[in-house]
């Protein structure tokens, strides 16, 4: 049991049952929880011939680190991909690839939210440094609402070197910085693009910044000076989506 991971929340467990059912070893449902979304999970589990046990909610509270919605699973360890995965993803990409880089985002809630936005925007993968960065946890999976099960999270040893390799493959690196002179809406992201978001509060590291082809900022009209990194990530990614749709042949 110690080698298994705990995944909780309806969306996260549903994604596992749909895309990685063999990883699910045990599935527990809180006593008395029989709403339609839970019934749908039970149908998925039955289709995979996975036994489901009913447990007191108090026991599930002990197993989960947050709001579990009455659904907790024990699963085999997840895989954080290495750099070689990027080459494979880019080789089979259809259309101009879109990648998200998180340079030192350590809050698991922010990582989960960024994964969710990246998946919704059609990104190929999310890239993080191996050190000083959040990684896949039960909290990340819960916040990601299933995106963590389908979108590759790639951990690299040297982020600057990875950016160099992506540039050599023809991708443009767009970093975000509050002091940038141009706005994100002025940067062409209709082609192969890597969007780089800095750490909470500190922003991008110097070497990361030096490897960016463009630096851009989000216009701030109110009294606050910046957005939460996960919110800013969503804005930037969907600006890329907007541009791609506008440039696509009708």
TrEMBL record:
Amino-acid positions noted as binding S-adenosyl-L-methionine in the UniProt annotation, renumbered to this chain: 198, 218, 227
CDD domains in UniProt: SpoU-like_RlmB (cd18103)
Domain RNA 2-O ribose methyltransferase substrate binding: 6-81
UniProt GO molecular function: RNA binding; rRNA (guanosine-2'-O-)-methyltransferase activity
Any matching Pfam family: SpoU_methylase
Domain of life of the organism encoding this protein: Bacteria
Catalytic reactions on record: guanosine(2251) in 23S rRNA + S-adenosyl-L-methionine = 2'-O-methylguanosine(2251) in 23S rRNA + S-adenosyl-L-homocysteine + H(+)
GO terms for cellular component: cytosol
Keyword rRNA processing: yes
Keywords tagged on the record: Cytoplasm, Methyltransferase, rRNA processing, S-adenosyl-L-methionine, Transferase
SUPFAM superfamilies according to UniProt: alpha/beta knot (SSF75217), L30e-like (SSF55315)
Subcellular location: Cytoplasm
Record-listed E.C. numbers: 2.1.1.185
Purpose: Specifically methylates the ribose of guanosine 2251 in 23S rRNA.
Similarity comment text for this entry: Belongs to the class IV-like SAM-binding methyltransferase superfamily. RNA methyltransferase TrmH family. RlmB subfamily.
Protein name per the record: 23S rRNA (guanosine-2'-O-)-methyltransferase RlmB
The organism of origin for this protein: Pseudomonas oryzihabitans
């Amino acid at each position: 049991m110690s080698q298994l991971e705990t995944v909780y929340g309806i969306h996260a467990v549903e994604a596992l049952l749909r895309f990685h059912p063999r990883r699910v070893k045990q599935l527990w449902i809180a006593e008395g929880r029989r709403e339609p979304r839970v019934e749908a999970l039970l149908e998925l589990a039955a289709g995979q011939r996975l036994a489901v046990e009913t447990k007191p909610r108090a026991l599930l509270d002990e197993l989960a680190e947050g709001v579990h919605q009455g659904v907790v699973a024990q699963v085999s360890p997840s895989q954080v991909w290495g750099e070689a995965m990027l080459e494979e993803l880019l080789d089979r990409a259809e259309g101009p690839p879109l990648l998200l880089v998180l340079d030192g985002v350590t809050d698991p809630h922010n990582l989960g939210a960024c994964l969710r936005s990246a998946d919704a925007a059609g990104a190929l993968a999310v890239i993080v440094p191996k050190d000083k960065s959040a990684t896949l946890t039960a909290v990340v999976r819960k916040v990601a609402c299933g995106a963590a099960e389908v979108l590759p999270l790639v951990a690299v040893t040297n982020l600057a070197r990875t950016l160099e390799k992506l540039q050599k493959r023809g991708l443009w690196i767009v970093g975000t910085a509050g002091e940038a002179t141009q706005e994100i809406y002025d940067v062409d992201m209709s082609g192969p693009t890597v969007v780089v978001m800095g750490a909470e509060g500190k922003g991008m590291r110097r070497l990361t910044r030096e490897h960016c082809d463009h630096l851009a900022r989000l216009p701030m009209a109110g009294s606050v000076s910046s957005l939460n990194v996960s919110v800013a990530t969503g804005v930037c990614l969907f600006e890329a989506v907007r541009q791609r749709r506008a440039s696509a042949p009708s």
